[in-house]
Design goal:
The chain is α/β, with parallel strands linked by helices and about 200 residues long. The protein has helices spanning about 10-25, 35, 50-60, 100-110, 175-185, 185-200; strands at about 1-5, 30, 70-80, 85, 120-130, 135-145, 165. The two termini are about 10 Å apart. The structure holds inosine 5'-triphosphate.
Length: about 200
């Protein structure tokens, strides 16, 4: 059984990632960073999802013993009408330490004059896995959709109440979590990772 430590302080990410990995049947044990050592506060200084995902993985790895595998997730929402913002600044769009509703309100305000298909957006997730023998690998997942006019539903986290995934008419906040766990940016990146892990460890 391989141990992989999740370098995140976001409990919603932990839940979504562990649910999918546990149902994959892989012989992988997922341990949360929070359960092992306290995840340090990491200043996300890179201007790409990939840069920030690796930053989180390596910062956490330094706190662990050798032969540890670490997985980090950097993700965010890119809205076409505002040049791909909030992007890597998604968690602190309204201000440092902003709540989900403050970020949502700022985004809806900035999109108030934008209608219909011009409200197109995508969630992006980069998963960075770093291993004990010095390698690193990243996996990308994208989920396209549209920004709703107002928040709906309480499922998920972050921008889920205003994100309507392509092919659906309701937000991730309303849709059952089983749908998000199949089509989200995180699920898509994780499917690639699971496939890679399966080919490496399960035979
Ligand atoms: P860690 O860095 O500790 O992993 P974080 O929440 O700070 O946790 P990010 O820096 O990657 O993570 O910021 C991601 C933000 O993007 C997150 O706070 C949400 O606002 C948004 N986001 C990412 N994935 C999302 C999802 O599945 N649903 C809704 N919003 C999401």
């Amino acid at each position: 059984m391989k141990n992989i430590y999740l370098a995140t302080s976001n409990i919603n990410k932990v839940q979504e990632l562990t649910d999918i990995i546990n149902s994959s049947g892989l012989k992988i044990n997922i341990a949360t960073a929070m359960a092992r050592v306290n995840m340090p506060v990491i200043e996300e200084t890179a201007d790409t999802f990939s840069g920030n995902a690796k930053l989180k993985a390596y910062t956490f790895e330094e706190l662990t013993t050798k032969n540890t595998w670490v997985l980090a997730d950097d993700s965010g929402l890119m809205v076409d009408a505002i040049q791909g913002n909030p992007g890597v600044y998604s968690s602190r769009y309204a201000k440092d330490g902003a709540s989900d509703s403050e970020n949502i309100n700022k985004l809806l305000k900035n999109l108030k004059d934008i209608d219909g298909i011009k409200r197109s957006a995508r969630f992006v997730c980069i998963l960075a896995l770093i291993g004990s023998d010095g390698f690193e690998i990243t996996f990308k997942g994208v989920c396209k959709g549209f920004i709703a006019k107002k928040p709906e539903g309480k499922n998920g986290f972050g921008y889920d109440p205003i994100f309507i995934p392509e092919g659906h008419t309701q937000t991730f906040g309303v849709l059952d979590k089983s749908i998000k766990s199949k089509i989200s940016h995180r699920a898509r990146a994780l499917t690639k990772l699971i496939c890679w892990l399966g080919s490496k460890f399960n035979h």
